[in-house]
Amino acid sequence: MAEQPANTPTPRRSNLRVIGWCLSGVVGMFAFGFALVPLYDVFCDITGINGKTNGRYESTEGSVADMERSVKVQFLAQNGPGMPWVFRPVARSIEVHPGEATTVNFYAKNPTGQDMVGQAVPSLSPSEGTLYFHKTECFCFNQQPLAAGQSTEMPLVFIVDPDLPDHITKLTLSYTLYDQGEPQAAAITKTTVDNG
Amino acid sequence: MSAVAGTHAQDQHHGPARGFSRWLLTTNHKDIGSMYLIFSFTMFLLGGTMAMVIRAELFQPGLQIVQPEFFNQMTTMHGLIMVFGAVMPAFVGLANWMIPLMIGAPDMALPRMNNWSFWLLPCAFLILVSTLFMEGGAPNFGWTFYAPLSTTYGPPSTTFFVFAIHIMGVSSIMGAINVIATVLNMRAPGMTLMKMPMFVWTWLITAFLLIAVMPVLAGVVTMVLMDINFGTSFFNAAGGGDPVLFQHVFWFFGHPEVYIMILPAFGAISQIIPAFSRKRLFGYSSMVYATGAIAMLSFLVWAHHMFTVGVPVAGQLFFMYATLLIAVPTGVKVFNWVATMFRGALSFETPMLFAVAFVILFSIGGFSGVMLAIAPADFQYHDTYFVVAHFHYVLVPGAIFGIFASAYFWLPKWTGHMYDETLGKTHFWLSFIGMNLAFFPMHFLGLAGMPRRIPDYALQFADFNMVSSIGAFMFGATQLLFVLIVVKCVKGGEKAPAKPWDGAEGLEWTLPSPAPYHTFSTPPEVK
C-alpha cells in the first residue's frame, strides 16, 4: 500500500468495500449453485417435465371415471447398473378409463445368495402426461428389501386424471430398479426419494 | 518493497529485487503480468502437445498410436489446460500489465493478493497434470466432466481434478476482484468510466462474469466430489438425483465462461484496430453497451448446449431465440470494427494482421454458432466435429489470435525493443494457414456425422482428417517460432520509441519503452 499515491482519498477503505461486495457475490453465487438443486426439482415437479411423477396422490373420493374414453398405459421395468434382481411388470400394458383407480403388480425376485434392498425410480413418457398421472400407492415410495432367493409382487395403484389432454392416448411408465446394498447398510445410508 | 511513498525521482531508483525471490515475492503488476503470460504460454504448449497426440491418432483411421483410454485423457486434458491454463491466465496477464498503465494507476489495487492468485495457478496445474501419472490415469470424461462419467465411472484421479479446479477457481476470483478494485478505485483523475479504453471496459465486465460463475463451477465440482466420496446423490438417479441437473449447473457456468474467454480479446482488438487504421474507434459507447448486453444475455442461454437431453419445446424455443439474440450485440461489435477500418489509413503490421484475421475468422465461428443455436438443426450437429470446428473457430482465431495480437502490440512497451517484423508476419501467416487447414475441414466432417471425442472413424472421413492433422501440425510447430520472436525481442533489437505505432492512443504510450518498473507514481492528467 505504501507505494500508492493519493489517487483516491481513501484507497484502502474503498478497496475493502469492493472486496466485501465481490466476496458476498462469490458466496451468494456459490450458494446459488447449490440452490439450483432444489430449484430444479421444484421446477420439474411443477411443470412435470423430465418425466418426474409427483409423490403420493391423496384423494380418490368423488372422482368420476370417464367411461367414454380409454387410455393405454404401458409398463417398463429395467435394472440399474449392477442390479441382479429379476424385475418385470406382471402385465405389460392395460387399458384404463381416466378417473378410475387401477391396481397393477410388478414382480421382483432376488436370485442372489444375499439379502438386498432395492429402490425403484419412476419416469413417465410423454413428459406432458406427467401432471395427469397420479399414484396413490406405489412400491417406489419405499425401499424394497428382499431376502436371498425371495420373490414378491409389488403393487402400484394409479389414477389417470380425467383432465388428460385429448391428444395423449398412451402413457408409458418406466421403472428403474437400483441396488441399495445390504439391508443394514441400507438402513444407515438410507436415501430419501422425494420424487417417488 | 519500499516502506516510503517516495517521490517520483526516488521511485525510479527502486528496482526489482534480485534472484528467484523477486518472482516469488513480487507484488509488481508488471512482474506478475509477465509471469502470467509466460505461464499461460507454457500451458499453451503443453495443451498443444496433447492436441498433437490427438491429431496424430486421427491422422488415419484405425488405432495407431494411442489406446482409446489414453485418447480420452488427451481430449480432456487438452480442453482443461487450454481453457483454464492457457486462455484465462493469458488474459489475466494482459490485464495485470496493461490495466494500470491504461488507467494511470501505479499498480493493481491489491498487489499482495495479485501475487497469491498467480502462484496458486502453478500449484493447481501441477496437481492436474500429475493425474496423468496416477493409477487409472488422468480424467477421461471430457473437459465438461458430465455426470455420471465423472462420478460413477470416473477414474480415481477425479478427486485431484476437483481440487485443481477449486484452486484455479480461487485464483480466477481473486484476479477478478483485483481487476474490479483497480478499475473502480485507481483511475487517474479525469479518467471517467466512459473514457476508459475498451480493453479495460471488457475486462471489468469479464471480472463481473468471473465473480458470478466461477463459484457455480466450484459448486458443481463440489457436488461431483460429494457424489464420489461422501455418498450423496446429486447426480445419481438411484438416490433421487438427476444427471441432467449436472448439465444445467455446469452450463450455467459454462456459457458465461465462453464470454470470459472472448470479451477481453474483443477489448484488445478494439485497441489495435484503431491504432493501425489511424482513426478513433467507431461507436465507442455502443461497444461498451454491446459488451454489457452480451454479458447479461450469456446467463440466459445455457440450455442451448443440451437441446438433445429432452428439453420441452417451449424451453428449446426460449433458449434458441435468446441465443440468436446474442448475434445482435456481437454484430454491433463486428460492424464497429469494420467501420473503424473503413476509409482508415490502414497498415498491416503483425498485430493488425492478427486483429483483421480475428474479425473475419471469429465471425465464421459466430455463424456456425448461429447454426448450432437453431434447436431442430442442433439435433444433427450435436456432439459432432461441427461443434469442434465451431468452438475452435471462436477460440483459436478468437481468443488466441486476440492474445497474439495484444502480445505483438504491446511487446515494444514491455521489452523496449521492436520484435522482428518479418518473423512476426511469418508467424501470423503460418498460424493463419495452419489453423484454417486444421479446423475448416472439421465443419464438413461434422456435417457428415463424424462424432467428436472418438479415436477412430469411418473410412469416408479419412481425407479430411488427414488435411486437418497436417494443418494442426503446421499450426503447432509455428507456435515455437513465437518463442524465438519473444526471446529475440527481450534480448535486443531495434530500440522502441515511447509510441511505436503512430495511430495508437492511450496513457500507456506516454510512458517510455520499456515501461519503467514503477509507473504513474504521480497520477497523470487525463483531459
From TrEMBL, chain A:
It comes from the Bacteria. InterPro entries: CtaG/Cox11_dom_sf, Cyt_c_oxidase_assmbl_CtaG. It holds the Pfam family CtaG_Cox11. Keywords: Copper, Membrane, Signal-anchor, Transmembrane, Transmembrane helix. This is Cytochrome c oxidase assembly protein CtaG. GO terms for cellular component: plasma membrane. It is a single-pass type II membrane protein. The chain crosses the membrane at residues 18-40. Belongs to the COX11/CtaG family. It is found in: Cell inner membrane.
TrEMBL record, chain B:
One of its GO terms (molecular function) is cytochrome-c oxidase activity. It catalyses: 4 Fe(II)-[cytochrome c] + O2 + 8 H(+)(in) = 4 Fe(III)-[cytochrome c] + 2 H2O + 4 H(+)(out). It holds the Pfam family COX1. Gene3D superfamilies: Cytochrome c oxidase-like, subunit I domain (1.20.210.10). Keywords: Cell membrane, Copper, Electron transport, Heme, Iron, Membrane, Metal-binding, Oxidoreductase, Respiratory chain, Translocase, Transmembrane, Transmembrane helix, Transport. Its main location: membrane. Pathway: Energy metabolism; oxidative phosphorylation. Its EC number is 7.1.1.9. It is found in: Cell membrane; Membrane. Belongs to the heme-copper respiratory oxidase family. Cytochrome c oxidase is the component of the respiratory chain that catalyzes the reduction of oxygen to water. Subunits 1-3 form the functional core of the enzyme complex. CO I is the catalytic subunit of the enzyme. Electrons originating in cytochrome c are transferred via the copper A center of subunit 2 and heme A of subunit 1 to the bimetallic center formed by heme A3 and copper B. This is Cytochrome c oxidase subunit 1.
